[in-house]
Design brief:
- The chain contains 5 helices and 19 strands.
- It has 325 residues and is an alpha+beta fold.
- Strand 4 and strand 5 form a beta hairpin.
- The chain is globular, with a radius of gyration of 21 Å.
- The model has no long low-confidence stretch (mean pLDDT 87).
């Protein structure tokens, strides 16, 4: 490969099967491909193994310098879908986390396929709704965990989107550039002399799309009583798992810019009916209303502790019944 012909940027767009809503991914791929960007290689991938193959075709024995990598796909904080069947009720592919690895997360076996590219990448950008967000209720890791892991593995700057992602949010070079009303991508910068360093992209825009949700002059209080489904394969039963004690959520606002494209982390039962936690746990969606969840240490602890509640409940459900007598 002639040095001047080497791609400076490689963009890999996820390619899940039809069961997943791929409209936004197909549109992003078409928009970027139609630009005819120079020194920018764009292709589709369905697994971590495909990422390895795509990078291997660029980073050959004659390759010089580094390339920046952009991966686009549906996501929740800490995980980005490549070829798994994801819908609003979870992952529907038991083999998604085995070779060829249809989901990119912190699975060390899957990441072993990419270890050979350490030092060959100048930057990695993960582009999926809230993939870089620091909260992820219903999952043991979050976006900060994933980007840190990749920064350590690949020895370069790694960032992930911290908001909804639109198909046209890319600059003239085809690199992810969120709209002015969206939060900046977050992540870590590799350092030879220390652990990765947190990147500070500047002040995020203030929310301008909220209106009060008060009832009788008081914030709306919603009670989460059970978990119906989790995006990742956390639940092994089809029945809702009732929480030992309800979690009370306080909401002072609703948002007029509901994250319609964000995949829900948890589907839950509340005192007001079925609901979904979306956007890295920032919103509680009931019917067509998206409540902005008030944050407090107690709430964060309660939602994080939901994992332990589920684990205890599942152990009880799966335990063999002892014989009488």
């Amino acid at each position: 490969m002639i040095f001047s012909d080497q791609p400076k940027t490689v963009t890999l767009v996820a390619n899940p099967p039809p069961e997943t809503d791929n409209g936004g991914l197909d549109q992003a791929f078409q928009l970027l491909s139609a630009r005819g960007l120079r020194n920018h290689q764009i292709s589709r991938v369905a697994s971590v193994s495909d990422i390895d193959v795509a990078l291997g075709s660029v980073v050959t024995a004659s390759f010089k310098g580094t390339v920046r990598l952009q991966i686009i796909g549906h996501a929740i904080p800490g995980s980005i879908c490549l070829g798994a069947r994801w819908t609003d009720t979870g992952i529907h592919d038991p083999a998604a986390f085995a070779f060829p690895f249809l989901v990119l997360d912190t699975n060390p076996v899957a990441l072993g396929l990419l270890a050979k590219y350490a030092g060959k990448l100048s930057e990695v950008m993960l582009v999926g709704c809230h993939v870089g967000s620091t909260t992820s209720f219903g999952h043991a890791i979050n976006g900060r965990t994933l980007t840190y892991t990749l920064a350590e593995l690949l020895r370069c700057k790694v960032c992930g989107a911290d908001d909804d992602v639109a198909p046209d949010e890319y600059d003239e070079q085809g690199w992810y550039a969120p709209a002015p009303s969206h939060r900046r991508p977050k992540g870590w910068r590799w350092s030879d002399a220390s652990p990765p360093l947190w990147t500070d992209p500047g002040t995020d825009p203030l929310p301008r799309n909220r209106k009060p949700a008060a009832r009788d002059g008081k914030p709306v209080e919603i009670e989460i009583r059970a978990v119906r489904t989790a995006m990742l394969p956390l639940l092994t039963t089809q029945e809702p798992v009732v929480l030992p004690s309800p979690i009370h959520v306080t909401c002072q606002y609703v948002t007029s810019a509901a994250p319609m494209s964000a995949l829900p982390e948890l589907a839950v039962e509340t005192d007001q009916g079925p609901a979904q936690l979306v956007g890295g746990g920032r919103y509680l969606k009931i019917d067509d209303v998206c409540y902005v969840i008030d944050r407090s240490p107690a709430l964060v602890a309660a939602l994080t502790g939901m994992l332990r509640c589920l684990d205890t409940a599942l152990r009880a459900l799966c335990a063999p019944t002892s014989a009488a007598g």
